[in-house]
Design brief:
Helix content is 71%, strand content 0%. The chain is an all-alpha fold. The longest helix has 13 residues.
């Protein structure tokens, strides 16, 4: 994600009522997991 995308995501999640800790966990997960890590493509 680019910096701008992260800022936009934070704004949207705050509007939905998420706390900063929850937002950081989401961003950390997105940035550290490849889509193929969790779901094997068959």
């Amino acid at each position: 994600m680019t910096g701008r995308e992260i800022v936009n995501l934070i704004r949207i999640l705050r509007e939905k009522g998420l706390e900063s800790d929850e937002i950081l966990k989401i961003i950390e997960y997105v940035e550290t997991h490849e889509p193929r890590e969790d779901h094997e493509i068959k």
